[in-house]
Amino acid sequence: MAWADGELASEELEQLRDQIRGAGLPEGALAEWLDPGAPPSAERLLHLLDEVRWRAAEVLPERRRSLTELGIAIAEADGEYPTREERAAILRIEEALGLGGPDAVATLFDPARPIAPLPDVRPRFDRDAMAGFIGGPAPETRRRVCALLADGRFETVAGLSTAEYRALVSEWCRVLADEGLGALGYPAEFGGGGDPASFIATFETLAYFDLSLLTKFGVQFGLFGGSIHQLGSRRHHEKYLRDAGTLALPGCFAMSETLHGSNVYDIQTTAVYDPGAHEIVVHTPVPGARKDYIGNAARDGRLATVFAQLEVEGEGRGVHAVLVPIRGEDGKPLSGVTIEDCGEKLGLNGVDNGRLTFDRVRVPRENLLDRFASIDDEGAYRSPIASPARRFFTMLGTLVSGRVAVGSAALSATKVALTIAVRYGARRRQFGPPGEAERILLDYPAHQRRLLPRLATTYALGFAIHDLQTEYLAATTAGEGDSGESEVGDAARRRHLEAAAAGLKACATWHATDTIQACRESCGGRGYLANNRFAALKADSDVFTTFEGDNTVLMQLVAKDLLTGFRQQFGDLGALGLARFAAARAGRAIAERNWVVSRKTSEAHLRDPGFHDAVLDARRSDLLLSLARRVTRRIAGGMTSFDALTDCQHHALTAARAHVESEILRSMLAAERRTPSSGVAEWLDRLRCLYALATIERDAAWFLEEGYFDPPKSRAIRRAVTALCAEVRPQAIPLVDAFDVPPSCLEGSIGL
Amino acid sequence: MAWADGELASEELEQLRDQIRGAGLPEGALAEWLDPGAPPSAERLLHLLDEVRWRAAEVLPERRRSLTELGIAIAEADGEYPTREERAAILRIEEALGLGGPDAVATLFDPARPIAPLPDVRPRFDRDAMAGFIGGPAPETRRRVCALLADGRFETVAGLSTAEYRALVSEWCRVLADEGLGALGYPAEFGGGGDPASFIATFETLAYFDLSLLTKFGVQFGLFGGSIHQLGSRRHHEKYLRDAGTLALPGCFAMSETLHGSNVYDIQTTAVYDPGAHEIVVHTPVPGARKDYIGNAARDGRLATVFAQLEVEGEGRGVHAVLVPIRGEDGKPLSGVTIEDCGEKLGLNGVDNGRLTFDRVRVPRENLLDRFASIDDEGAYRSPIASPARRFFTMLGTLVSGRVAVGSAALSATKVALTIAVRYGARRRQFGPPGEAERILLDYPAHQRRLLPRLATTYALGFAIHDLQTEYLAATTAGEGDSGESEVGDAARRRHLEAAAAGLKACATWHATDTIQACRESCGGRGYLANNRFAALKADSDVFTTFEGDNTVLMQLVAKDLLTGFRQQFGDLGALGLARFAAARAGRAIAERNWVVSRKTSEAHLRDPGFHDAVLDARRSDLLLSLARRVTRRIAGGMTSFDALTDCQHHALTAARAHVESEILRSMLAAERRTPSSGVAEWLDRLRCLYALATIERDAAWFLEEGYFDPPKSRAIRRAVTALCAEVRPQAIPLVDAFDVPPSCLEGSIGL
User: Distance between alpha carbon A658 and the CA centroid of its chain, in Å?
Assistant: First the structure.
C-alpha cells in the first residue's frame, strides 16, 4: 500500500514507521520495506506488485473497494483474520497516505476501459418549430439558398492559389447573379426583386458557406449596387442598377483611404468641379489618400463609387460619392487610375482587395450620385439638406445596411462553429475514473461553460439581429424614393436604427471572434485541421470586427447616441439641473434596488425575466447617467466635447456595451412572448436565463460595487450559471441542430 | 444656430418658439424660420449658411469660441449691440440646444486639419540594459540566431503552395542543423553542443521568425531527438543522436492518437514483445488508435518514437516508447506502415503533419527506449521504477522540455505582435476635435487599455518563463545520466517543475492568442494584411494552446498538483481536521485582511509590491483551501477523486490560474530586486503595478465577494489601471523596442 504510487520520500517512510509504531502494529515484519537508508529495490517492489495483482484478481470485485479491504480479503483467503484494532490502524494509515477509495485499487489493474454508449440526444422540443422560430425573415429564400449551396456548383477546393481562389469566388458570384439573388434588393423596374428582406436573408445564409463569396457578394450587390441605389437618383438607377445586379458591371465601393478608415469625414481624395467642362476632377492629393482595402478592385471592378471631398464654386462641400470608371472592358486600368493589389490577407483571400490612386481623373457631372446633393447646369451646388454635417451623416446612413448585414453574417459563422464544436464535444471522450468508460467532453463542467453560455448568447443575439433586420426593412420601405427632406422628422427613428445597427454589429462580430476561437480550442487538434472549418471561419470572420466600421468606433457611436438621447431628454437641465436629476435618480435607483438588490437567491428569483431585465436595465441607466455627468462636468470645465468623451472613453464603451446587452435581452424576452409551443418556450427560457446570468456574472464586480448584489447573491449567480449549463447540456445537440446550418456546409467536418 | 446641425424636429421647433417667447425676445423676426408646418427650404438654409460662413470668416478667431459669441460679433460688426438680457436669452437657448462651446463653431468651417509632429519617443531608461535584463539566458546564442535570421537565407515567400512551403521549411531546418543549432542540447560526445540553455534560447529566438520552422525544429531536435536522449540509454544515444542532430535522420514523436490526445495513459497502440524472435510487434488495433497530428510524418520523417501499451510476458506494462522506422532512404513508407497526410491546417502549413498506422510492424528488442524500463535477454520485463503510474509519469516528464519551449515561443510571438501594434498605434492618427490635428491612436484611453496591460503582462511572463528555463536547466543538468531511481527523493522538485511548466505554458499561450488578437484588431484593416504578420502569428500560434498539452488539461494538472501539495502538507488532518484547519486559516485570513483589505486607496498603497503580492497570494490560498474542502467533502461522500475534482472543475481551474498569476508576480518581484539601473527599475516598477492591478481588476468580483475590497477600493483600482496606462504610454515604444525583436522579422510591416 505504502509504495502503491511509488512516491515515498525518506521523511514519509519515517512517518509511516511512527504510525505503525503508534498503532501498535508489529513493527519488525515491515522493517525491511521501510528503512529510509536502504529502501527496497525496484526489483523487489515489482515482484511484490505482481504478487498483489495476481492475488487481487482472485478477490471478488465488491471487496476491492479500497486497498485496506483488498488486503484484508487476501489475508482472509489465506486464513488470516486481522483484529478489529489492526483493521482500524491500517485504515488510519491508508487515510494518512491519501490512498483511500477505489482509485488506488484501480491503478493496480489494466487501464483498458469499458465502452459506453452515447446518451440519448433526441430533442425534447419541436425541432422544426424551433428552427422556424429562430430562423428570421424570408424563410423561403433561406431554403432556396441552402438548396443552391448544396447543388454541386458550390464546393470549396483545398490548396488553391490566391489567383485560383479569386477566380472561383468570381464564378460563384456569377452563379448567384444568374439566379437573381444579387439584384433581390433593387426595385423591380430596374431588374431587381424588390425584396430587400430576401436580399438580407440570402446574405445571412451565404455566411454558412464561404465568407469570401459572402464578402464579394456584399461588395458588388450591397455596397456598390447599394450605393448607386441609395445615393443616386433615377438617372443612375436606370443606367447602372440592372448591370450591377447581373454582374455585367462589376464595381467597387471606394470609401476607406490608407490614412483614413474610420474617420471618413476627413478623407483626403478630392473631387473638384470644373464648370467649364461640366466635369468633376477626382484626384489623390497625397499617397495616404489612396483608396485602400477596396473589395473587387484588384481584379474585377470596372466602376467605383468613390467618396471624396467635393469642391464646387471654389468651396469645400464635404464628402460626396462620385462614380469613377477604373477599368476598361479589357480589364486594364483606365488612364489616370493606378490599381494596386493589397496582396495576401489574413483571410478572405478569395476577395480581390486593392488600392486605387487617381491622377486628376475627369468624369462627367452626371457621375455625382446626387440624391442628397447636386450640381446644376449653371455649376451651382444644390442640396435639399442644408447642414453639411447632416448631409454627411445622411449619406453615411447608407452604411447601415452593411452593418445589419455583417452582424447577421457574423452570427451565421458563429452558428457553424457552435454546431461543429457542440456535436464533436457531445461525441468525443476523454479521461475518466479508473476502470470506467472515458467521460464525454461535453459532460465536463469546464467544457459546458466554454460552449453553452455562448450558445445561449447566440440565440439571444439571433433575436436581436432579426428584430434589427425587421426595423431596417421597415425604414427602407418607408424611405423608398424619398429625397431625404421628409426624413427630418424621422431623425430619432433613423438615429435609433443607426445606433442599433452599430451596437449589434460590434457585439455580434466580437461574439463571433470569441466564440469561433472557443470552439476551435474546444475541439483540440481536430479543430486545427482545415477540413473542420475553423481555419476558414476564424481567418475570414476576423476582419468583421474591423470592416463596415471598427467595433470600438461603433461602440463610441452608440455611446454618443445615448448621450444625445439623454441630452434631448434632459438637455435643459444644465449642469446644476443634471446634478439635481442625478440625486433624484439615485433615490429612485435605491428604490429600484429594493427589488433587484434583494438578497434573494432562490432559483425562482434568479430565473425571473423581470429580475434579468431590471438588473441589465439598471446597469445601462446608471452607467449612462454617470457618463453624462462626467462628460458634462468636463465640458463645463472648458474641454471640447471630443476631449471630454475621450477622457471618459472606457466608461463610454462600458455604458454602450451595457446598453446593447440590455437591448439584446429585450429582444429575447419579446421573442419568448411569441413562442409557438411550450416545448420551444421552455428551452428558450433556459437559454435566456443562461444568457442573462452569464452576462451578469461577467460584470459581477460592477453589481457588487454598486450595491445591487451582496456577496452571497453574486456566488449564487455563479452557481446558477454552472447549473444552467448542466441543464442545457442534454439538449445541446438539438439546440444547435435548430440553427439549421446546411449539411453541405459541414461536409467532411466533425460537425456532421 | 438652431439649424446648425440640421436636425430640428417639429417638437424641437415648438420648444424653441416657447423659449424665444419666454426669453422676451422679439418673436416675429424669426417666425418664418420656426414654423413647424412650413419649415424653411434647404435652399434658404444653404444660403443662410453660406452667408454666416462668409461673415464668420471676418470675425477674429478669439471671438469664435461659441455660436452666441460669433453671432454677437457679426451683429456688432453691423453696428447692432444686443442688450445684456438678449445675450443671456440667446445663451440659454444655445445651452438648451446643446450647441455650446467651440465644436458647433468649428463645424461651420473647413474640415482640413493642421498637421502635428509625433511626440518624442526617446527612452527614459537605458534601453540596452533593459533589453539585456529581460532577454533571458544565453544572450550570445540569441544574438547569433538573430544574425542568422537576417543573413538572407531566411526569407518568407508569399503565395507558396503547401508543398513548396514545406520544402522551404525543411531547407531552413537543414541550415539550422548545419549551423549546429539543432544538436545544441545534446551531449558533446554524441556530436551535440552540451548546452541546453542555448538550445532553448535558439528556440525562443526562432519564434520571432516563422512558427512553422520553429515547430519543425522543435519536432526534430526537441521531441524526436529529445525522446531518444531522455528516454533512451547509451546504446540509443550512440546510434541515433548524432544523425538526429545533423538532420541526417529526420524523425517523429508519435504520441497522440486520433482518439487519445490528452489522455496518453489510455492510448491504444500496442507493442507486444515476442520473446522467440526478440522482437517487439507494434500495432494499431483500431482505426482510432492511429497516430495523429504527427509533425514530420507526412513528408520527411524516417524513424518515429512511438508510444504504445507495452506487453511483456503476457502482461500489460503501460505506455512505453519504441523506435519504429517508418520510411526508407527512398522516402517511401516501409512495409506495414501506412502514412496519411493531415492536409491543410489552420496554420503551421510548413509542417508536414501526418498519421501513422502500424500493421504488426516488427522491430528488434533494442528499439525499446529503455532508460526507465527494459526487456532482458530472457524476455523478462525490468524497471528501476516499481509503480506503473510512477513510471508513466516519469516518461511523460520528458514533455516538460516541450512545455518550457512552447511557453517561451508563445511569448516571442506575443512580442512581435506587440511591437507591431504599439509602433503603429503610436504613429497612426484618427479623429480629433474640430479644427485640431487628429489624435494619435495610442493617446486614446481605450487603445492604451487594449495594449498596455498586455505589454505589462508580457514583461511579467517573460521573467516567469526565464525563471522556469533556469529551473528546468538546473534540473536537467542535475538529472543528466540518471537512471531515474535516484530521482525518487526529488519528487517534490520534479513535480514543482512539471506543474510550473504546465501552468506557464497554458498562461503564456492563452496570453499569446489573446494579445495577438487584440493587436490585430488594434491595427484595423492594416492588421489584416499578411505583410503585417498578424495573419501568420495568429494562425500559427493558435495551436499553441492545444499542442504539448491542452491548456485546460494542463491547468487541471496544476490544480491536482496543488491539491497533492496540500494533502502532503495537511493530509493527516482528515476531513474533520481540514474543517478545523479551514476555521483557523479563516481567522488568519481575516488577520491578513486587516492589511490587504484596508480601505486604503492611496497611490502609494495601490502601487506597493507588498499589497500586490499579499492580494494575489491570498486569492491563491483561499481558492485552494476552499477547493480542497469541496473535493474532500465529495470524496468523503463516496465520489471517486476523479468525479470529485470534475464536479469542482470550474473552481479548480480558477484556483490554478490564481496560483500561476501569483507565481508570475513573484518572478517579476524577484527580477525587480536584481535590476541593473534605476531607470530600468523605475519602468519595471510601473509595469509590475500595471500587471498586478490589471490582474486584480479582472477578478475584482472575487475580492469584493470575499470582503478583501470595499467598493471604493475596487473603483480606485480601476482608476489606477487607467492612470498607469497613461503613465506607461509615453515610453510604450522604448518598452517594446527592448524586446529586441530582430528587424529582419519585421521587414515590410508597419512595425518597422
Answer: 16
CA distance B300 to B251: 8
Do the strands B279-283 and B361-364 form a parallel or antiparallel pair, or are they unpaired?
A: antiparallel
Least confident of A313-327, B156-170, B453-467, B576-590: B576-590
β partners of residue A368: A322
**Do the strands B337-341 and B354-358 form a parallel or antiparallel pair, or are they unpaired?**
antiparallel
Do B542 and A520 make contact, defined as CB atoms within 8 angstroms?
A: yes
Q: Can you tell me the distance from the alpha carbon of A491 to that of A390, in angstroms, rounded to the nearest whole number?
A: 10
The complex's ipTM works out to: 0.89
SS3 label, residue A315? strand
CA distance A305 to A368: 9
pLDDT of residue B66: 80
For A128-169, the pLDDT digits (tens) are 999 999 999 999 999 999 999 999 999 988 889 999 999 999
At B280, phi and psi to the nearest 5? -110, 130
Identify residue B455 by its one-letter amino acid code: L
pTM of the model as a whole: 0.90
All residues of chain B having their beta carbon less than 8 Å from the beta carbon of residue A346 are: 520, 527-530, 534-535, 538-539
* Nearest neighbour of A571 by CB, restricted to B8, B98, B342: B98
| Closest Cα in chain B, distance from residue A193 (Å) | 33
Q: Which three cell numbers stand for residue A82?
A: 486481522
Give B630's contacts (C-beta < 8 A, 6+ positions apart): B644, B647, B648, B651
Count of C-beta atoms within a 10 Å radius of residue B87: 15
Gap between the Cα atoms of B375 and B276, Å rounded: 13
| Cross-chain Cβ contact B385/A6 below 8 Å | yes
Distances (CA, A) of B455 to A32, B533, B731: 57, 18, 11
Tens digits of residue pLDDT in B206-241: 999 999 999 999 999 999 999 999 999 999 999 999
Cα separation of B220 and B223, whole Å? Answer: 6
Identify the three-state secondary structure at position B737.
Answer: helix
Q: Is there a contact between B481 and B380 (Cβ–Cβ < 8 Å)? A: no
Question: Residues A622-637: pLDDT tens digits?
Answer: 999 999 999 989 988 8
pLDDT in tens, A183-204: 999 999 999 999 999 999 999 9
B487 band by pLDDT with thresholds 50, 70 and 90? very low
Residues of A in contact with B572 (CB under 8 A): 95-96
Q: Give the 3-state secondary structure of residue B481.
A: coil
Which of chain A's residues have a Cβ under 8 Å away from the Cβ of B260?
Answer: 430
A646 and B439 within 8 Å at the Cβ level: the answer is yes
Residue A64: phi, psi to the nearest 5? -105, 25
Query: Which residues, 6+ apart, have CB-to-CB distance to A37 below 8 Å?
Result: none
Please tell me the distance from the alpha carbon of residue A449 to that of residue A455, in angstroms, as a whole number.
Answer: 10
